[in-house]
């Protein structure tokens, strides 16, 4: 099959350049308005009272003392939320039960995790709000809590719900359980496959809960007018999905709610679910004032959805020549306190990079007394793939194969089937592996002093399409504006301007991008899922093409010919017959009024043709044999990016995602007390990488254009967090001769591994 | 022949078969719902297992010839189609 | 109303004498953001671990969430809002833009102020010195490379200009 090449791939005018982002100056001068920067003269301050217990029945809530305090204007509890039906829906977050959506916002009969919101106060100053909240008297019956997913599976483990039975296609279980979902994929004949194998590896892995770690805490400000119209200002990854969730929880029409997305200080999936917004609305409805809430850092850690802790059992069978013939995988993912999680996605990711005829994958989502897990950059894939990459590395050593060659031997290509049955279209895994193998880093000798080694690992994320809308308006001087509903977390509005400019034959500075609120543009799904440049970019392209079509008709009027006689090429309208000078958009624009009025192109799209993302990372490390600390000497991230619209931001996504993965690999974890409380709910002890912890990460962008997008775009943002755990683990194993199969591979764990087996390093 | 791939957890209903094939009456396209009704005649319980409140179970998508059918149960299946039921490709954040 | 004593403080902020009525319980960060209305300095953790609230206080870079507003009475303060001279951005600001050293931008004011404090006292920092100095500023988006390179290029630019 011929590799698809967009006709102008490599020959773009604007795509692939690095203009300064349009919102850049505001962000370096402190002018940009993030959610917590908003201020109204008559605003009230909100404070949420949260459960001190990880698992408890709520017996009574008495707000009288609090209500009597001067300065307290309103108090709300779950009684102020409408009752929602027991019904499963697809929300911006995946699949969840409506009834649990409101319980998550304000607890009704049970507190299911430490920090579960119980009530909220609006007062004239933040200290009064906090004092009043602490004056609310709540009677709890404390119950035994369980925070580890494997513990929650055991017979006799505390049950979060006495009425949840496992959702499993087909069988309706009757026994109450903490397993809220069981996903299974099966193909071929497992027994025959393993019988055929020359080498079989059966290993167990564990990962700890980690947090997205965005620097900006959640925030929400709401104003409810007496006529029923509500405005919400919030740092969110999607104004429309936020509005949908708020409307569902508060049982209101969407037209009654306007969500204005403020600038956002990081999300990584964690700012897709709503937390504070309905509380702010309820308090505003009761007081008639804007009510502002900002979460403390401790609350961010303890009450917003982190990423699942997991346990995995992975069994892989290989032939002597490296062919993967059979795989048996079992995984348990921490679900947190409510169903609607990522296990099914993990089941799809875990063996996705590899071709293989015989497999069985069983994944359980397990309820625990922790906050409901939220998406975190390629949710479920890092936890699934790192174990597979560890076993692949063991196999490479045992079989005497180069680790990249082993991946190449089994790499999925177009026409192979993913574990869930989907057939791969054109993908770039092979090209990515080849680029990694050919890289200067990989061809250089691995570090060979004591306790030094090199590790490699592969990563995968499917990326999303979803819905986007865009408008492109032509200004009277031929410059343009592009409006989308995609919140800009990392510089995407610049890419929108670039794609519009490319399509219109303008410069990036001649196009002004705007991120609009829910009143100003058509429905647009989250900024997440690595979908923004792909899907919203696609909508921008179509909107720009719509404008071009309209302008063709105007030129036809001016040239007294048919629109079909006109082509738009090289940034100008050209007559297919002769006799007319080419006309740029700039030249045409002043003539728009007299040829029919303003020109605005628009598009709304739910695109197919999403391109998956594959990455391969190479890590050279050194382990300090006394402390167990791992120093990264050199790190290269190779990734198939389709077409890099703004290369600096593509490199930035890869570098940032890899850094998060390194933190996940080496240091980050939730530490729980036996009462289910997070003991390290701050940036000091929840240890994320600083400028001292990571070297300059080199990025190699492989461009295998995605045939499903007019400019060949593949989503890039999530894939880079997937390989680091495997790459670091494999490097550590090769350095010290021991496989640390539990994340994070923090100094105490590596030290313990060294203490049990101070072996010679594995030969490179 | 329409080929329907059976999700692993439902293979008890098809005697362990990972795929089931059938001919459409008159070789004319039918909706996915109708297809499942046909299948349910031979493999009781299949329809109920895939439905939730009358529609396709949330979190499950229909792929017809490797393309996600957004119309779900109302999407049309042709006489040579390949049908999968899997978690949607478009999910994920 | 919960009882907090009020007081008047006067500080020089970015060269301008600014008088504020503050609550004794306020941090300098709160006073800057909620009283002076200068929201360029950001809140990330309120425990002095992330550096998003960095300001320069009497020549030293500090986490303003750990400084009581009352302590700033009579002090010289520099915040991100004071880095540009009119329309002329500080070389750190232009280099951050050139290098794409920001993605979400929430940590950017803190980094800019901390980096300025570094270059004010050490115009020739090595890469290691830059990393050490900035280790108190957390960035979750970039992986730090572009930030370090922006600071290096800003240092070079400052040496050649007369700023």
What keyword list fits this structure?
heterotrimer; B: 93 residues; alpha+beta; Ubiquitin-like (UB roll); globular; disordered C terminus; C: 163 residues; DNA polymerase, domain 1; 2 domains; 17% strand
List strands and helices in order, with pairings.
The complex is a heterotrimer of chains A (764), B (93) and C (163).
Chain A: H1 24-29, E1 44-50, E2 56-62, H2 64-67, E3 72-77, E4 88-91, E5 94-97, H3 98-105, E6 110-111, E7 117-123, H4 126-134, E8 137-142, H5 149-153, E9 179-187, H6 190-196, E10 199-207, E11 219-224, E12 230-234, H7 239-250, E13 257-261, H8 277-287, E14 291-294, H9 297-303, E15 310-318, E16 324-336, H10 343-349, E17 358-367, H11 381-399, H12 403-410, H13 429-438, H14 440-443, E18 452-461, E19 468-474, E20 480-484, H15 492-504, E21 511-515, H16 532-559, E22 566-569, E23 572-575, E24 583-584, H17 585-588, H18 592-595, E25 600-605, E26 613-623, E27 630-640, H19 647-666, E28 697-702, H20 723-736, H21 747-756
Helix pairs in contact in A: 10-11, 11-20, 12-13, 15-16, 19-20
Chain B: E1 2-5, E2 19-22, E3 30-31, H1 32-42, H2 46-50, E4 51-52, E5 55-56, E6 61-64, E7 67-69, E8 76-77, E9 82-86
Parallel strand pairs in B: 1-9
Antiparallel strand pairs in B: 1-2, 3-8, 4-5, 6-7, 6-9
Chain C: E1 6-13, E2 16-23, H1 28-35, E3 54-57, E4 60-63, E5 76-78, H2 91-98, H3 108-121, H4 127-133, H5 145-160
Parallel strand pairs in C: 1-5
Antiparallel strand pairs in C: 1-2, 3-4, 3-5
Helix pairs in contact in C: 2-5
């Amino acid at each position: 099959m011929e590799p698809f090449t967009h006709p102008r791939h490599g020959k773009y005018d604007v795509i692939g350049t690095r203009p300064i982002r349009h919102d850049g100056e505001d962000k370096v001068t402190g002018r940009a308005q993030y959610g917590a920067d908003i201020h109204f003269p008559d605003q009230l301050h909100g404070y949420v009272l949260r459960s001190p217990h990880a698992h408890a029945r709520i017996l009574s809530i008495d707000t009288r003392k609090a209500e009597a305090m001067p300065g307290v204007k309103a108090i709300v509890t779950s009684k102020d939320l409408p009752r929602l039906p027991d019904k499963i829906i697809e929300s911006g977050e995946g699949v969840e039960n409506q009834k649990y959506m409101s319980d998550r916002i304000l607890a009704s009969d049970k507190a299911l995790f430490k920090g579960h919101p119980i009530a909220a106060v609006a007062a004239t100053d933040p200290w009064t709000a906090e004092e009043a909240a602490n004056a609310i008297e709540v009677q709890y019956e404390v119950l035994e809590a369980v925070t580890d997913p494997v513990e929650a599976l055991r017979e006799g483990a505390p049950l979060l719900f006495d009425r949840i039975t496992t959702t499993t296609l087909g069988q309706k279980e009757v026994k109450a359980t903490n397993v809220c979902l069981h996903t299974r994929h099966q193909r071929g004949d497992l027994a025959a496959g393993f019988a055929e194998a020359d080498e079989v590896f059966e290993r167990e892995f564990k990962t700890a809960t980690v947090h997205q770690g965005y620097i900006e805490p959640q925030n929400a400000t709401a104003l409810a007018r007496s006529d029923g119209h509500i405005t919400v200002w919030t740092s969110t990854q999607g104004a429309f999905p936020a509005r949908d969730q708020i409307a569902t929880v508060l049982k209101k029409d969407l037209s009654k709610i306007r969500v204005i997305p403020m600038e956002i200080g990081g999300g990584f999936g964690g700012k897709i679910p709503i937390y504070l917004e309905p509380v702010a609305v309820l308090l505003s409805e009761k007081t008639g004032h804007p009510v502002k809430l900002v979460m403390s850092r401790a609350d961010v850690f303890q009450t917003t959805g982190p990423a699942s802790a997991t346990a995995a059992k992975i069994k892989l069978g290989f032939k002597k020549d490296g062919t993967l013939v059979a795989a048996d995988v079992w995984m348990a993912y921490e679900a947190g306190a409510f169903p609607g999680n990522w296990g099914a996605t993990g089941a799809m990711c875990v063996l996705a990079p590899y071709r293989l005829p015989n497999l069985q994958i069983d994944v359980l989502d397990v309820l625990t007394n922790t906050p409901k897990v939220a998406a975190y950059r390629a949710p479920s894939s890092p936890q699934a793939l790192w174990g597979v990459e560890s076993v692949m590395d063991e196999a490479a050593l045992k079989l005497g194969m180069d680790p990249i060659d082993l991946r190449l031997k089994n790499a999925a290509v177009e026409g192979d089937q993913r574990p869930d049955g989907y057939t791969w279209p054109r993908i770039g895994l092979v090209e990515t592996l080849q680029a990694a193998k050919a890289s200067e880093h990989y061809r250089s000798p691995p570090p060979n002093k004591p306790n030094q080694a090199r590790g490699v690992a592969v990563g995968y994320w499917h990326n999303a399409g979803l819905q986007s809308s865009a408008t492109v308006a032509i200004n009277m001087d031929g410059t343009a504006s592009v409006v989308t509903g995609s919140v800009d977390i990392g510089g995407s509005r610049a890419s929108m301007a670039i794609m519009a400019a490319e399509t219109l034959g303008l410069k990036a500075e001649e196009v002004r991008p705007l991120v609009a609120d829910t009143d100003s543009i058509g429905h647009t799904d989250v900024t997440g899922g690595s979908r923004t440049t792909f899907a919203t970019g696609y909508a921008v392209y179509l909107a720009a093409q719509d404008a071009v079509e309209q302008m063709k008709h105007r030129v036809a009027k001016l040239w007294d010919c048919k629109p079909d006689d006109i082509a738009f090429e090289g940034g100008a309208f050209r007559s297919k017959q002769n006799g007319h000078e080419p006309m740029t958009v700039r030249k045409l624009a002043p003539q728009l009024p007299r040829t029919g009025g303003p020109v605005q192109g628009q598009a709304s799209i739910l695109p197919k043709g999403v391109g998956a993302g594959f990455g391969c990372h190479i890590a050279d490390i050194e382990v300090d044999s006394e402390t167990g600390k791992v120093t990264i000497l050199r790190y290269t991230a190779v990734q198939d990016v389709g077409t890099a619209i703004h290369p600096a931001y593509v490199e930035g996504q890869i570098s940032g995602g890899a850094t998060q993965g390194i933190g996940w690999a080496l240091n980050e974890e939730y530490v729980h007390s036996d009462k289910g409380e997070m003991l390290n709910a701050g940036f000091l002890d929840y240890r994320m990488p600083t400028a001292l912890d990571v070297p300059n990460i080199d990025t190699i962008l492989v461009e295998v254009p995605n045939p499903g997008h007019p400019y060949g775009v593949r989503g890039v943002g999530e894939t880079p967090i997937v390989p680091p755990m495997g790459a670091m683990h494999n490097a550590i194993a090769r350095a010290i001769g021991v496989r640390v199969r539990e994340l994070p591979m923090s100094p105490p764990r590596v030290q313990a591994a060294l203490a049990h087996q101070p072996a010679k390093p594995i030969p490179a | 022949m329409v080929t329907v791939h059976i999700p692993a957890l439902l293979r008890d209903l098809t005697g362990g078969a990972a795929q089931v094939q059938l001919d459409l009456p008159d070789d004319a396209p039918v909706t996915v719902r109708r297809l499942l009704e046909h299948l349910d005649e031979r493999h009781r319980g299949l329809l109920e297992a895939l439905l939730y409140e009358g529609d396709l179970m949330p979190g499950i998508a229909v792929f017809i010839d490797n393309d996600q059918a957004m119309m779900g149960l109302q999407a049309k299946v042709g006489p040579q189609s390949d049908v999968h039921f899997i978690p949607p490709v478009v999910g994920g954040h | 109303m919960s009882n907090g004593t009020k007081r008047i403080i006067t500080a020089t902020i970015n060269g301008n004498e600014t008088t504020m009525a503050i609550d004794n319980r306020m941090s300098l960060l709160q006073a800057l953001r909620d009283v002076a209305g200068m929201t360029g300095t950001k809140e990330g953790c309120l425990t002095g671990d992330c550096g998003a609230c960095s300001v320069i206080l009497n020549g030293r870079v500090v986490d303003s969430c750990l400084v009581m507003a009352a302590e700033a009475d009579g002090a010289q303060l520099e915040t991100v809002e004071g880095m540009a001279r009119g329309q002329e951005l500080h070389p750190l600001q232009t280099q951050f833009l050139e290098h794409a050293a920001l993605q979400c931008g929430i940590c950017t004011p803190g980094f800019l102020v901390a980096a300025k404090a570094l270059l004010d006292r050490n115009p020739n920092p090595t890469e290691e010195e830059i990393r050490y100095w900035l280790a108190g500023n957390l960035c979750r988006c970039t992986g730090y490379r572009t930030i370090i390179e922006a600071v290096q290029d800003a240092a070079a630019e400052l040496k050649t200009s007369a700023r």
